[in-house]
Request: fold
Amino acid sequence: MEQVAGSLTNMQLELLKVFSYQLPEEELSEMKQVLVEFFAKRLEKRASKIWNDKKYTQDDMEKWLSDDTQ
Reply:
């Protein structure tokens, strides 16, 4: 287990400890949704920080969206 543990992240190890039992499919789906929402919020916060730090505007976004080279 030590070799396997060395290749897993701290989050993966924690999840293995917490969920060391079989979940019903419905609960597994709920847990997946919780994780999706967690990482979506985290990504949104990071994107907002970058947006604010770089002082992007709605005009910048519209230019990017209309750029055919993207």
